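Working notes for the structural subgroup meeting. M.R. asked for a predicted model of this chain before we commit to crystallization trials. I am recording the input and output together here so anyone reviewing the notebook later can reproduce the run.

Input as submitted:
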Amino acid sequence: MKTEKTKKIGKWWTCPPILLFAVVVWQSASTAPAPSAVPDVDLPNDNCTVIIVGKDASTDGSVMTTHTADCGSCDWTWRKVPPADHKPGETRRIYHISQMRTWPPKEGLKWDLIQKNFTGLELPQPPHTYGYMHGVFGYMNDQQLAMGESTIGNVRKIGNSTQAPKMDITMLTLLAMERCRTAREAIKLMGELAEKYGYGFVDGGEMLAVADPKEVWIFEIMPVGPLWTPESGKPGAVWCAQRVPDDEVSVCPNESRIGEIDLSKPDFFMASAHVVSFAVEEKLYDPVSGKPFSWKRAYSPSAGSASSSQGRRQRLWRFYDLVAPSNKFKAETENMDFPFSVKPDRKISVQDVMAYTRDKSYGTTFDPVKGIRGGPYANPNYWAGTRKISVANAEYTTVTQCRSEYPDIVGGIVWLAWGAQDTACYMPFYAGVSAIPKSFNVGDHWELNRASARWAFDYTDFHAQVVYKSAIEDIKKAQQEWEIGALTKMPEIDKQASELYARSPAKAVDLLTRFSNENAEKVVAAWWELGDRLLVKYNHFGFYEPEKRSRGRGQVLPDVWQKAVRMVDIWSEAIR
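Returned structure, recorded in token form:
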């Protein structure tokens, strides 16, 4: 039996605006992450998108990778580790390095404090180790070896969080940077070390894009269960790698990407010797089934699509749709059924890759500002119902370029953008730099530090969130100025440094270091200033013009948002 109140609600329910609002509310509730269809798999809740571009798929012949460090509370500091010569008998200490752990700045820098986490393992040093740049992972060395990382998860039963394994993914990348020149060398070294000394403790299933000037591979590695010990005599990790064809592109959005493998083709596949037998042993693959062995279906299966997850798993589909729209990929396609790589409709530039890292899925079903999702100022960061390639909680994003036509110290470039991609600026650092700015070495989420480069970008980002639709246009202009400015100057720097290298490698290093650091320091200063300008310009939701000493009309709120507010008022009144 209806009461007067329910009759009143029933009356308003028939009102089209209220019905529309109810649908919006229902849609909002329905976007919660769908439960995993594979309950015994540890799937990551991360947003580390790795974009991979083969040399013949790029406009300039460069091999490119990206990485979004998406933690939101991790250490963001960067270091340049110099090359070094070592005497016979010298050793390299191995540490447990958590991707997530941080320390208060008063206690010291992370990369000093990790020395407290000595595993007890020391490896003989080679006669020479290469110089490299690293943040959470190693990103590029002076031989143009480059990497990008994405956590992919693993079948729960093979996880190993004990301290028996001595290798984790960060440590493996640092060792590869120190000891390897090519992608294949790095994959083999990381696989061998993980098998011999065990992989896991702080890490589970992980993916690395491993590149050099000639090629790029997807390398994936898993632990082998909590009972493994060095004394077992068994391999302490299982791994697999597949090469991305030179004229194709690929992406890893925190999902295993390697499917069926063919080890008779060593130019395209590598793996640990027990890659299949271990899966059979753990009852993750049944050879009697008649089905071909699939790496991802055995070790890191994950059901779902962009559509079925309401956009929580749309990044794979979105990237392929961006680079190869002629394929008409469907959002309903299961992610596990997407191809390993695709040929793009057109060749891709480094600027294109930067734009992809900033993609918010505008114009799609998963548009974060569709309707009233973005609030009155069309802010894509309000809507948390989907995972986009561009994320608000990024520590930093990298774009690496490996270029074969130059000496290694000139050909390798790491483009680094601090903080959220949409409000940050990419700064180039050549592989041969001898140092990076001191402001890159410090900083912490819990303490504002104006001596930290990262805080300049967070400062601008914070002010942009208030009136995003207007402020982002100011930021785009600044990005154009500094990113295009650097790209315009770099051909001449490439030429000068290459000529200098033939006569004096040391002078070439000085030129590259000076250019990279001066540009970065100017960008950091520009972003502090940009944050100040946004604060003044949009203060009190107005539009202040310092040059004219005038205040404009202020922000105009969209009709759809104003109508939505009125709908809420009516709905609230109706249910009282």
